[in-house]
Amino acid sequence: MINRLWIFLLAPVCCWSQILTGTIVDASANQPLETVSVYFDNTTVGTTTNENGEFSITYTDAIQSSLVISYLGFEKIIINDYRDKEHIAIALKPSSIALDEVNLDYDDGLTRKQKLRLFRKEFLGTSKIAKSCKILNEDDLILRYDKENRVLSASAKAPIKIENKALQYEIDYDIIDFELSFKYANIPTNSFTKNRLTYYGTTFYKDLKKSNKKSTIKKRERAFKGSVQHFMRALFNENLKGEGYWIFYGRFRVNEWAYFTVGDLEDSSFKQVTLNKKVTILYDKDIQSSIEVNTDKFYVDRFGNYAPIVGVFFNGYMGSQRVGDSVPSDYNLDSDSQIVNDDFLEGNWNVVSVEKSSKEPPFSLMVDSFKNAQFTFNSDKTFNLQTTAANSFFQMLTSAINQSTWSLSKINENSLVSIANGENIQMEIFVSVDGSDVFFTIGKQGEPSYFLLKVVKA
């Protein structure tokens, strides 16, 4: 994925599908170009031009990436300001490849076999998932080694095609920059100690035949959980703890919000983040990473995109992730769904309708009370439940609840609001969103007693 482009920090995000059409021609001959790749960077959303050089591509607010126009032998075009356009016309210029890049074999101290081995390891990764990946067009790779500075660089004559068998993706990766430096290099013994790796490019994902198998879905979810993308989404939603992340400073677990600050930006889909010290990240009480920020602030959106990429450094598990471990930025996102977070919940919610479980008949006494109820989630984390219906049992319940506080967490992908008075849980509310409809389920997960309330924000 290329570095996030700053225009999106200033552009409000639409919440409906949009269609962008265009025509692409050869700039020198003014003739239409067929089969030009048109895609949103680091996503599964893309198309190609027809015989008239025409394309049509649909996108939603789940797409926060640059639009990439790519055709072999021509200069690549990256477009950022497509959201205010309905149609674009592009004239592609032939690319000028230096003559010395035609020859793929350089007398630079490393054999091509050695360079390929180093490139595969650092580009694809070393995890079990990454080891299932295969580069299908290695002959297009141009690899150079600088003996004096101990730096391996890579470019390519065409986008690198990667088959990820474990995650069932075919990935087109168009390298913009790849530079791998070594602290130590002993060429005769093939001993190399990495110093720093920098790489970026544009990426397009296609699902393979077995992408809908349960085993593939589980593998994709495992690859996503604990990743930089997952962490950034949790950071945006200010729900690190709910998503399974613990933050440590030194040897001690700390309050994450004493180190991270997350603030809204006016008229922007991004939030501003600051981190005042290097901290350790523990995911699921097991997987360890660290993050260090060498910039005053960075920006993140709800899809896990962040900018600038250079200046935000990960080590440990997150730092070891490579292209072979990655899923697209639109992974597991329903563009029309609302992410349930603290900001979403805060305010007053009125009940529109009530359904109840057929079990536990005493709860039927509360149906009318819930039909006329209002739930209030205050910004100071206090909670209030009121009803206009007279019900002594409900009033007894609310007398305890209304002295409680609320907190949001995730349990098996469900959004759970716990209403607690000290350590005593008074009520649990599972929050779900179906299109524009919002539902509160009152009850404990796995138990038969519940009320299903359709609610609207007052």
Tell me what the structure shows.
The chain is mainly beta and 458 residues long. It contains eight helices and 30 strands. The strands form six sheets. The protein has an eight-stranded antiparallel sheet with strand order 25-24-23-30-29-28-27-26. The N terminus is likely disordered.
* CATH class group of the largest domain: Mainly Beta
CATH architecture assignment of the largest domain: Beta Barrel
Terminal residue distance: 40 Å
Question: How does the overall form come out from the CA principal axes?
Answer: globular
Radius of gyration equals 26 Å
Low-confidence parts lasting 5 or more residues at pLDDT below 50? 1-15, 98-104
| Total of helices | 8
Strand content: 35-45%
Enumerate the strands of the largest sheet in spatial order, edge to edge or round the barrel. Answer: 25-24-23-30-29-28-27-26
Structural domains: how many: 4
Structural class: mainly beta
Query: What is the third-level CATH name, the topology of the largest domain?
Result: Lipocalin
Helix content: 10-25%
Largest sheet: 8 strands, antiparallel
* Strand segment tally: 30
Give the integer mean of the pLDDT values: 86
